[in-house]
Amino acid sequence: MSDDQHLRMVRERFDDRAAHYDDSAMHRGLAAAVAAFADLDGVDAVLDIATGTGLVLRALRDRGFAGALSGVDLSPRMVDEARRHLPDAQLLEADATRLPLPDNAFDLVTCVTGLQLFPTPATAIAEWARVLRPGGRAVTATFLAVDPSRHRAAPQAHADHIPFDSVEQLDALVAPAGFSVGRTETWVDGADELLIAELALTQST
After folding, report:
1. Fewest CB atoms within 10 Å of the CB: 48, 99, 120, 190?
2. For residue 22, how far is the Cα from the chain centroid?
3. Where are the domains of the chain?
4. Contact assessment for residue 183 and residue 134, using Cβ atoms and an 8 Å cutoff
5. What is the C-alpha to C-alpha distance for residues 150 and 54, in angstroms, rounded to an integer?
C-alpha cells in the first residue's frame, strides 16, 4: 500500500468516527491525563498533532491554559468537530508529515495515539522539531499494550505500535530529530496501557 493509499484509508476511517468519537471515556480520560502531565511552564503556544475533535486542546483549556491553541488533523470531519468546541483555536486539515506552519512557532507539541497511524513517523517527528522554538518540548501518548477488541472502529490493520511500545524504542525513534525522552508515566484503562512521554528538544538538526 502506498503512503497516499494509507492516508486515504486513515482519513476515511476517522471521518466515519468523528460524530461519535467523544463518546469514548477512554479518549476523554487519556486527553485529560496528557493535559495534566504536560509542563506548561513558559508555554505560550501549543500545537496538537492528529488533534481529532480537539480533546487534548480542550483539556488544556479546561486546565486553565490561556495561550494560543492550534491543531492539525488529516480528517476534515474531525477538524469540523474540533472547531465546534474550539472556535478560537487555529485548526487545520493537514498531513502531519507536511505541516503548513512556520518554523519556531510553538513551545509545546502534543501527539496522542497518532504516531502509529503515520506512514513515516520519523518525518512527522522531524516536523515537530522544525515548528518548535529552541528549548521546546513534545508530549506523546503511545500504546504499550492495546486491546484491539476495544478499538474495532480504529484502523488497526494500518497501525504499527512496535516503534513506540517502550521508552527505549521511542527514544531511538525521536533521537535523529534532536529529541530525547525525559519524564514518563504509564496510563492504564482496562486492557489498554499507554506510555505518556515528554520529549525534550536537545539539539538543532
Report:
1. 190
2. 16
3. 3-201
4. no
5. 21
> What's the confidence (pLDDT) of residue 1?
66
Which residues share a beta bridge with 186? 195
Cα four-point dihedral sign 112, 181, 198, 40: negative
Over residues 113-168, the pLDDT tens digits come to: 999 889 899 999 999 999 999 999 999 999 998 877 665 555 554 456 788 889 99
Q: Which amino acid is at 151?
A: H
Question: What is the length of the chain?
Answer: 205
Query: In 10 A of CB 71, how many CB atoms?
Result: 28
d(CA 150, CA 138): 27
**Per the structure block, which three cell numbers stand in for 199?**
520529549
In DSSP terms, which residues pair with 175 in a beta bridge?
none
> Which amino acid is residue 65, in one-letter code?
F
Residues 178, 202 contacting (CB under 8 angstroms): yes
Tracing cell 513551545 back to the chain, one arrives at 107
Q: Which CATH class is domain 3-201?
A: alpha beta
Look up residue 140 and give its three cell numbers.
506523546
Where helices occur in the chain by DSSP H, the ranges are: 3-17, 25-37, 55-63, 76-85, 121-131, 167-174
